Amino acid sequence: MLELAILGFLYDTPLHGYELRKRITALTGHVKPVAESTLYPAIKRLENAGLLERATQPGSVAAPRHVLTLTAEGRLDLRRRLAEPATQDISDENRWFTVLAFLRHLEEPVAQAAVLRRRLTFLEEPASFFYEGDRPLRAEELDDPFRRGILTIARATSKAELAWLRATLESLDGARR
After folding, report:
1. Where residue 48 sits, what CATH number does that domain have?
2. Under 8 Å CB-to-CB from 60, ≥6 apart: which residues?
3. Does residue 116 share a domain with residue 78?
4. What is the per-residue pLDDT across 125-172, written as a single tens digit (0 to 9) for each?
5. 17 lies in the same domain as 79
6. Residue 163 within any structural domain of the chain
């Protein structure tokens, strides 16, 4: 997801590494802070793959800065990653938020809707964090108030997301007509 976030932020505007790190941290940092030891190797991989270009600009006060720009191939790669997210990108909430943050870069409403439908299908499957055998447990069935809290919060979040997904899909479907 780090590579997707890098490509997504650079799709909009060239950035230097520090600014890119701040933006990624703002998007995902509450869950998984982005360390320089992770960010810069990812940037290098994308650069080696021809998806990014690096240009040196003089620093205003300090040393020169390396500004990163997305190449045409990088723009295509981002749209491919968004159009075909992995199953884990759909099912994991934090990874999903990264996909969602840049989904607007898929220019066709039908492509955007296809990704949203995958998430909708995932959310409509009966699931729980806790099971009795193979049967998912509902919050009301738990004696543990903390586990009940997890399920209550998850249900409310899922309900809100389902409503948003359905409304957005209706809007995207209307844009195709």
Report:
1. 1.10.10.10
2. none
3. no
4. 877 788 888 888 888 899 999 999 999 998 899 999 999 999 999 999
5. yes
6. yes
DSSP 67: E
* 8 within 8 A of 74, measured Cβ to Cβ: no
| Assigned token pair, 126 | 């009966």
Q: Domain count for the chain, please give it.
A: 2
Can you give the length of the chain in residues? 177
Q: Does residue 92 lie within any of the structural domains?
A: no
pLDDT in tens, 36-84: 788 999 999 999 999 999 998 876 677 778 899 999 999 999 999 999 9
Cα distances from 1 to residues 14, 27, 42, 48, 123, in angstroms, run 19, 11, 10, 18, 20
Together in a domain, 73 and 129: no
Domain carrying residue 25: 1-83
d(CA 33, CA 156): 26
Whether 116 and 168 share a structural domain: yes
Instruction: Give the pLDDT score at 1.
Output: 87
Q: What is the dihedral of CA 24, 28, 29, 35, to 10 degrees?
A: -50
